[in-house]
Amino acid sequence: MKIRPVYFFLLLAVVGVVLVFANTPTISNYKTYDNQGIAQQNPDESYEKMMDVLTHQRCMNCHPNDNIPKQGDDRHPHYFGMARGDDDNGFEATSCNTCHQSINNTNSGVPGAPHWSLAPASMGWEGLSRAQIAERLLDKNTNGNRSHDELVKHMTEDDLVLWAWEPGIDADGNQRTIPPVSKKEFKEAVENWFANGAIIPNK
Amino acid sequence: MEISLTINGMLKTVDVGDENTPLLWIVRDLLNLKGTKFGCGKAACGACTLLVDDEAVRSCSYPVKFVEGKKVTTIEGLGDRENPHPVQQAWIEEIVPQCGYCQPGFMMATAALLNKVPNPTDEDIDNNIINVCRCGTYYRMRKAIHRAAKLQAEINTNETKEI
């Protein structure tokens, strides 16, 4: 029996469509970050890069789980008994902004950035595993009701987040350490991980 | 650059070479108000505490550029001999100071606290008054803070009656 070419190409098209749907990767139930154009890196690699930053002391010192901000590379409790207070900004008359302003202070070594304060208690990451941090990051009940788009914007554009790469000098005049991943790489990693569905590896 | 501020009720304009100069040096050296003290220079001890728009700040770590158009209050502007602020009156009554160097900072921090918490508990005092006194006058200061709260409440009550 001789098959007419048109039927052959029709068959090929049907098989192609079936294969496309069969091989589409499963993504998380969360709304995905709509920027597939930048999805070039391995998302698991992006996840690890992102977590290298989030677990660094420049970030983690202000994401405590005991309401006590931490200081320094040794992550010691903030001196003078400073704590979260009712609004994540210290106490009534002695707040974060009694000492911390919107810029680093090169005279005193006091760090500063816009809206300097603790991350809300629901965003306490201290002591959690990378997967647990990612879960809290993605859960709208613990991330400040942020969508994926809003998380990407917060993590790649917020001045307080990006302060981690410009932390200034400490009280002894020494440069504070910065995360092990560059700001550019971090931004790319965040965008890529979300663009690929924000899947937590090994979960 | 020129920076205009209201200090202790008076409008002043200062000319500064470096806009990041600590407010403390402007207050002490340009405006000649020596009550605010230099302690550690690292925003740790609180000797340099003053009020910017009624909020306590550590002036050794506060760039002068941030006071443009704002209201600054130092210990000299809190009250005077004839009309002491309740905090100053309480400090006198409880004979708080020993060497006295750190006391202006404590009094300014206390004034800020009473603005926010008119009747502070010991816990409020522990949380908010975290300055350092090398003479160890903390016990007398605690008594004076409670005393100041009562004096301020009496003033507020009298003012309400007059109205």
Derived structural class of chain A: mainly alpha
Following the backbone from N to C, one meets helices and strands of chain B in this order, namely EEHEEEHHHHH
The CATH topology label of the largest domain in chain B is: Ubiquitin-like (UB roll)
Strand order of the largest sheet of chain A: 1-2
Our measurement of the CA-to-CA distance between the termini of chain A, rounded to an integer number of angstroms, reads 52 Å
Output the CATH homologous superfamily of the largest domain in chain B. Beta-grasp domain
Structure description:
The complex is a heterodimer of chains A (203) and B (163). With 203 residues, chain A is mainly α. Chain A has one domain (43-195). Chain A has 8 helices and 2 strands, in the order H-H-H-E-E-H-H-H-H-H. Chain A has helices at 5-22, 43-54, 57-60, 96-99, 130-138, 148-157, 159-162, 183-195, and strands spanning 70-71, 76-77. Chain A has a two-stranded antiparallel ribbon. In chain A, helix 2 crosses helix 8 (183-195) and helix 6 runs antiparallel to helix 8 (183-195). Chain A is elongated, with a radius of gyration of 23 Å. Chain B is an alpha+beta fold. Chain B has 2 domains: 2-78, Beta-grasp domain (Ubiquitin-like (UB roll), Roll), CATH 3.10.20.30; 86-162, [2Fe-2S]-binding domain (DNA polymerase, domain 1), CATH 1.10.150.120. In chain B, helix 3 crosses helix 6. The longest helix of chain B has 25 residues, at 138-162. Chain B is globular and about 45 Å long. The chains are: A mainly alpha (203), B alpha+beta (163). The A-B interface holds A 79-83, 85, 91-95, 97-99, 101-103, 105-110, 171 and B 20, 22, 41-44, 49, 55-58, 60-63, 66, 109, 112-113, 115-117, 124, 126-130.
Name some characteristics of this structure:
heterodimer, A: 203 residues, mainly alpha, two-stranded antiparallel sheet, 36% helix, elongated, B: 163 residues, alpha+beta, Ubiquitin-like (UB roll), DNA polymerase, domain 1, 2 domains, 5-stranded mixed beta sheet, 40% helix, 14% strand
